[in-house]
Amino acid sequence: MECMGVDVFPSPFWEREPSKRHWATLVVAADLAPTWRASLAACRMSPMRELRTAPTRPEALATAAERIDLLQNAIERVIRGKPEAVRLAMVTLLAGGHLLVEDVPGVGKTTLAHALARALDCSFQRIQFTSDLLPSDVIGLSVFNQHSSLFEWKPGPVFANVVLADEINRTTPKTQSALLEAMAERQVTVEGTTHALPQPFIVLATQNPIEHHGTYPLPESQLDRFMLRLRIGYPGARDEKQMLRDREHGEPLDAVEPVMTGSDVLELQSAVSEVSVDDAIVDYLMRVVAATRSSEMLDLGVSPRGTLSLFRAAQALALTEERTYCVPDDIKRLVVPVFAHRLTVSSRYSSAMRRSEEAETVLHEILKTISVPL
Fold first, then answer.
1. pLDDT at 103
2. How many CB atoms lie within 10 A of CB 297?
3. Is the peptide bond before 10 cis (omega within 30 degrees of 0)?
4. Quick one: how far is CA 13 from the chain centroid?
5. Higher pLDDT, 268 or 47
6. Per-residue pLDDT for 22 more than 60?
7. What is the C-alpha R_g of the chain?
8. What DSSP state is assigned to residue 158?
9. CB burial readout 340-361, b (16+ within 10 A) else e
């Protein structure tokens, strides 16, 4: 403990010399008595000094839960009847990953990304991916200044806390690959110079199913960099009616106010890493991963990056549910959104379903064969 710059209770030397522990108390008391008296006197001379203590774990958990609830409520004012999609988007943000939203046009993919961005007091950029978009339109380029006769760096829209990559699979693979370094390493290298991206950093990408016309399927290397892939789906009749009423006299998205700052997001991401995961749950996770790599129904199993993504996402999910520990249901709940887009189903087991749905079906079958820890 330190008071007015004086160490009142120095590190005990008997921790390094256990053999002297039986007489250490007397020696320390005799040698340090003047120091204690001086320190205590200094404390008495400063009555206005505040003794600051770090918040206890329950207090920190309550604060985190309050922030998470505010964020979810802000998004759900715009996205009606899709609490699971909203929760998974928040899990991706807190786990420090990137989110891919795949669904048919018009179900709210871009609206979900906009609502999340507006609820955060962070910089936001939207990139509309088209077939003629160039990599420099995404990451930036150097422009020659005729007045100074020097090249000046002009950062692209990727230099923002929240980047919406709208319809990412409508641009060419050359432009898609411009995001690889940014998503994996939070930096961009141009002409031999590395530029760090602002923190926190998240890419919210939307895409139409690959069976639709005018799309370029994302390569496996880029799909693997998305922590989660989710679908929104059509709303229920009651939720769709409420959606109409919400937009009768205005746009709810315009009324979304920021409820969390960038520093708040970084604190929550740090809190996620403190969530404990029991060895039994880690072993369960590893059995699922091993099953994807050995299954004859799959040509490509889950990568180590995918394993780490599920581990971190499970920690984030536990925090959103006000827990400091993970449970087996966290793993089961996240296996499909974290793993499905990373798998390649063997052509021998292909069916009339979409490719993404085939992978989800295989994962459900794998989960049925693996025992859950109690």
1. 87
2. 17
3. no
4. 43
5. 268
6. no
7. 26
8. T
9. bbbbebeeeeeeeeebbebbbb
Per-residue confidence (pLDDT) for residue 155, from 0 to 100: 93
pLDDT (0 to 100) of residue 203: 96
- Partnered with residue 154 across adjacent β-strands are 141
Report the candidate in 100, 154, 95, 97 with the shortest Cα–Cα distance to residue 129.
100
Tokens representing residue 190 in the block: 């141009």
Q: What percent of the chain has pLDDT over 90?
A: 58
User: In which band, very low, low, confident or very high, does the pLDDT at 23 lie, cut at 50, 70 and 90?
Assistant: very low
Beta strands in 46-173 (DSSP E): 99-102, 120-121, 124-128, 140-145, 150-155, 162-166
Q: What is the pTM of this model?
A: 0.80
pLDDT-above-70 percentage for the chain: 82
Task: Give per-residue pLDDT as tens, 138-184.
Answer: 999 989 888 888 888 899 999 999 999 999 999 999 999 999 999 99
Task: Give the other-Cβ count within 10 Å of 179's Cβ.
Answer: 24
Alpha-carbon distance 160 to 328, whole Å? 35
Q: What are phi and psi of 264, to 5 degrees?
A: -65, -40
Q: Which fold has domain 275-374?
A: Helicase, Ruva Protein; domain 3 (1.10.8)
DSSP sequence for 330-370: HHHHHHHHHHGGG-EE-GGG--SS-HHHHHHHHHHHHHHHS
Amino acid, res. 42: A
The alpha helices in 186-327, defined as continuous H runs, are 220-223, 237-246, 262-272, 279-294, 304-320
Residue 371: is it exposed, middle or buried by C-beta count within 10 angstroms (0-12/13-18/19+)?
exposed
Check if the beta carbon of residue 135 is closer than 8 Å to that of residue 173. no
Where along the chain do its domains lie? Answer: 2-44, 57-273, 275-374
What does the mean pLDDT of the chain come to? 83
Where b means 16+ CB within 10 Å and e means fewer, 265-290 reads: bebbbebbeebebeeebbebbeebbe
57-273 domain in CATH 2.40.128.630?
no
The torsion region of residue 5 among left (phi > 0), alpha (psi -120 to 50) and beta comes to left
The pair phi, psi for residue 166, each rounded to 5°, is: -80, 130
